[in-house]
Design goal:
Spore Coat Polysaccharide Biosynthesis Protein SpsA, Chain A, 7 strands, alpha/beta
C-alpha cells in the first residue's frame, strides 16, 4: 500500500432479504470512511436492493444463492484501485463504526487480515446462541490443532488487503467462505490479527443460527472446509516433493 496517498477502502455487504435492517446498517456507516459501498443482493425477494440503492449504496445482484457467491460478485464490482476491503453483514448485528478497529492494524502496516472477534468483544445477550458458540469453538479448536493458530472467532466482520485477498484465490460459494479465508491466510503466511468488536441481536431471523437444522448444515460445511483445505495443502506438498512427479 502506498504511503503517498490515503488508502482506498471499500465495504462489501452480502444481503439476502434484509429489508428490515439494510437501511439502518447503511445509515450507521461513518461518513468518509469508504470510497465505495457495495451491497450484494443475493436474490432477495423483498426490497433489500431497492432500499440499499436509495440509501446511496452500489447494488450488485447475484441470483446464485450463497454467501461466497454474493461476496465474489461484489468483489468483481470493486474499483481496481481499492487497497482494503471490509466485509460486514446486513442484519444490523455489527456496529459499522467499529470497522475502524479492523482497519487500524492494516493501515499501520502490522496486519494483512483482521477478524472482528465477537467473543473478545461485547456480545449482546441472545446475539450468539449456545449452538453457535459451540460450533465456533469447535471450528477454532480444529484450526488450532491442524494449523497451530488460535483464532477466537469466525466472525464475518473483517478487513483484508485486496492484494492479500487476491492471493488467496477464494472459491467457496457458500458459508465456507469465511473459514476458507482464515485457513488460507494461515497457509500463505499472512499476518493475521483480531480486534474485539460488539455484536448485537440481529434484526429479523437468521438464515443460519435461527434454525438448528441450518446451523448444523453450516457447521458441517465449516468443519469439512477446514479438513479439505488441510488435505489439499498436504497433497500439493507431496506432489511438489515427489522426485518422480
Amino acid at each position: 500500500m502506498s504511503e503517498r496517498r490515503q488508502a482506498s477502502v471499500a465495504l462489501i455487504i452480502p444481503a439476502l432479504n434484509e429489508q428490515p435492517s439494510i437501511g439502518r446498517v447503511l445509515a450507521e456507516i461513518p461518513a468518509g470512511l469508504y470510497s465505495q459501498v457495495v451491497v450484494a443482493d443475493n436474490g432477495s425477494t423483498d426490497r433489500t436492493g431497492e432500499i440499499a440503492r436509495s440509501a446511496g449504496a452500489q447494488v450488485v445482484f447475484e441470483p446464485r444463492r450463497g454467501y461466497g457467491s454474493a461476496c465474489l460478485a461484489a468483489l468483481a464490482a470493486l474499483d481496481p484501485a481499492t487497497d482494503v476491503v471490509v466485509f460486514m453483514d446486513g442484519d444490523a448485528s455489527d456496529v459499522p463504526a467499529e470497522a475502524r478497529l479492523l482497519l487500524r492494524p492494516i493501515l499501520d502496516g502490522s496486519a494483512d487480515l483482521v477478524i472482528g472477534s465477537r467473543t473478545h468483544g461485547r456480545a449482546e445477550a441472545g446475539s450468539l446462541p449456545l449452538h453457535q458458540r459451540f460450533g465456533n469453538r469447535l471450528a477454532t479448536s480444529l484450526i488450532r490443532l491442524l494449523y497451530g493458530h488460535r483464532y477466537s472467532d469466525l466472525g464475518p466482520f473483517r478487513a483484508i488487503r485486496t492484494t492479500s485477498l487476491a492471493a488467496l484465490r477464494m472459491r467457496d460459494p457458500g458459508f465456507g467462505w469465511t473459514i476458507e479465508m482464515q485457513v488460507k491466510a494461515l497457509q500463505m503466511g499472512l499476518r493475521v490479527a483480531e480486534a474485539p468488536v460488539s455484536y448485537r441481536r440481529r434484526v429479523g431471523v437468521s438464515k443460519i443460527s435461527g434454525s438448528l437444522k441450518a446451523s448444523l448444515a453450516a457447521g458441517a460445511k465449516i468443519l469439512w472446509t477446514i479438513a479439505r483445505l488441510r488435505f489439499s495443502a498436504r497433497s500439493h506438498a507431496t506432489v511438489r516433493c515427489d522426485p518422480h512427479g
